[in-house]
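Risk register update: the risk of archive-format incompatibility is retired. Evidence:
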Amino acid sequence: MRTKIMIIAAFILVLSVGVVSAEVPSVFEVNVLNYYTIQDLADTDFATYTPGVRMALFITEWFGLSGEALLLEPFSGVLPNYSLLVTTDLVFRWPLGFFEMFGALGPAYDLTVNSGGITLPAKVKYSGRIGFDFNITPLFCVGIEAKHLLPDLSGLVAGMQGFDLLGDTFVGLGLKLKL
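Archived output:
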């Protein structure tokens, strides 16, 4: 019994020290992302999740640049092509110690990779994301975020294109390694 209490007390102590020392904002981050569209969640279609990776470099405590690649619906069937969504963003964050809020804006590109090479469509999408992270330790955090894609910004402004909130909004979790 005494050993269990010592292990629990040591775990709480290590976690507390990690949370207190996690208040320093990171300069470089690597994320592993797991997204679902809101439509997939509404349809309970959990086989079509969207995995991805992101890297971010922060120039100041509150401003940085990021790039990410998402593999769109890899588990919904046999695909001869891989569809990737590649985005580059300007990131604005508000480090508040254990809790950190962020927002990002930037262009997004649909890439198709197959045996013939890489295909890039001429039309550029735009993306915006918001979220927050919980800094668990100085090197690791867990975050929740939402990302919306605008397939045709000029068509939306001109009123020729609809706004698809369910199909073009991704929500998910991110696991982040901070340096």
